[in-house]
What we know:
Layout: E1 13-14, H1 26-38, H2 49-68, E2 77-80, H3 83-94, E3 99-104, H4 109-120, E4 124-129, H5 140-150, E5 155-161, H6 173-183, E6 186-190, H7 202-205, E7 209-213, E8 225-229, H8 267-283, H9 285-304, E9 309-311, E10 320-325, H10 330-339, E11 342-343, E12 345-347, H11 352-358, E13 365-369, H12 376-389
Helix pairs in contact: 1-8, 2-8, 3-4, 9-12
Amino acid sequence: MTTRLHVRKSSLIYADHAATSFPKPREVIRAMTEVMETKGGNPGRGTHSLSLAAAEEMYACRETASAFFGLGHPERVVFTMNTTHALNLFMRGVLQKGDHVLCSDLEHNSVWRPLYALSEAGEITFDTFASFAMTPVRNEEMILQDISRKLKPQTKLLVCTHASNLCAVTMPIEAIGALCKERGILFCVDAAQSAGRLPIHMQKMHIDALCVPGHKGLLGPLGTGLLLLSPDVNPTPLLWGGNGVASLSPQMAGDAPEMYEAGTQAAPAIAGLRAGMEYVRRVGMDSIRQREETLGKRLKNALRELPFVTLYVPHHAGGTVLFSIRNTPSEAVGDLLNEKGICVRAGFHCSALGHKTLRTPTDGAVRVSFGYNNTEGECDRLISAVSAMGQA
């Protein structure tokens, strides 16, 4: 189905960065084009110059990611299609029958659905711990206490989001990581909304598995993701097939990363991902985050003044804002904004747990998520568009 834009592209306001960043930096596009034009071999499938050139690009991305996230082991950086792929690879690769898992009450369906499927199959059990997102006096000790109350002797894994995809709530992953380390529990972090925006250091935060999208805060292309594994964690593979290693063996031979990368990898996209990480590092995560938080605060301050708007968890600072309008379905609000050339996302945002926790209406809510290239003028246009809905 083709959706007709009602405005010229040059006047479009894109405020859906929690889904994917747009537009991509020119450096990302150039890096992808260069690989397709000059390094177009299949990486790891031959010793000719083009295959080796593509493989070098991939290893350079592993090095960049390893340094970016404080892993220190480039060979433990696994390329995936997205965060969901990374989460499934890790969770299904480490969990065994009888294991118990904890996750937060804000999780994306990429965490909740795999756990639910394994639970329904009788393989595992899982519980949620409280994020206390709706509590203005929220602190990390409240979260740690609830985690401790829900731990069981069978608890093998704690998996949680670093930052919600619905709103500006973040989780104290360094403190949670320390607790998991103390209790001998694996710790997996969903960094879909935090990678490129919040500092992450796997070693210091005791993270065993970090699941990262390439296409959001890292400003890379769609269809890219990363699973970063600590040296002592080795899940079983999720996919089986050719990986360029020990081709005569029926087993999925080799070590990380090849063991987890069956099939041909997207070398041009991986080059674009590296360029995106380098762009973020050059501009600075602090600068990007401050811009997003400034715009988020500007929007929330304006929405507070509108009596027909319900604003969710406004006490959290960040560039993602969730709201609803009285007597107007969220999808209708999204359509009205789209007609004015403003791209947001309405509905349930693939997070059943999160919407239940935030107590949104039965039709969901509207999410505005600012990015590195949004402006105050664009924010003001959005405010004007929402204000006008109360006069209709």
